[in-house]
Amino acid sequence: MGQSVAILGVGPIGMLACQWAGAMGAGKIIAVDIIEDKLKIVKDLGVDVLINAKKEDVVERVIEETKGKGVNLVMEIAGSLATQRDSLLIAAKRGRVIHIGRSYSDVLLPDEVFTRIFRKELEIYGAVNSNSSPLDNEWK
User: Fold this and answer.
1) Total count of domains within the chain
2) Beta strands in the chain (DSSP E)
3) Residue 103 pLDDT
4) Roughly how many angstroms between the first and final C-alpha of the chain, as a whole number?
5) Which of 11, 62, 84, 119 is most buried, with most CB under 10 Å away?
6) What is the pTM of this model?
7) Residue 131, in any domain of the structure
8) Which residues does 136 contact at the CB level (< 8 Å), separation at least 6?
9) 47 with 15: CB under 8 angstroms?
């Protein structure tokens, strides 16, 4: 693969995504979260760049790490409004953005951010997340 990957949100699914990116031969893996302990865990999973979004500007740091190009693949897993916005801002030209996390409020993007979808010719995908609600009679 050799391409750069950014994983926004490194809970259990994000940690698996970090491992997957490494196994698939990603060139550079960037992990973003707001919890330092999660970032420490993924460091041992082969992540190249750790970004604590509470301490650093995510977009600025990713653009710096990629020498102004952005990343080839963004996996938005956190489901926050900030990561959904940032996913579009850090993607490279003709990059791919996969939205796995879900925000439970309206997602409103400023025109400057929304326009990047067209200008960068981004491919945007949605991935179904599982539901952990108990099924009828599951515990009987």
Assistant:
1) 1
2) 4-8, 28-33, 49-52, 71-76, 91-99, 123-126
3) 78
4) 47
5) 62
6) 0.88
7) no
8) none
9) no
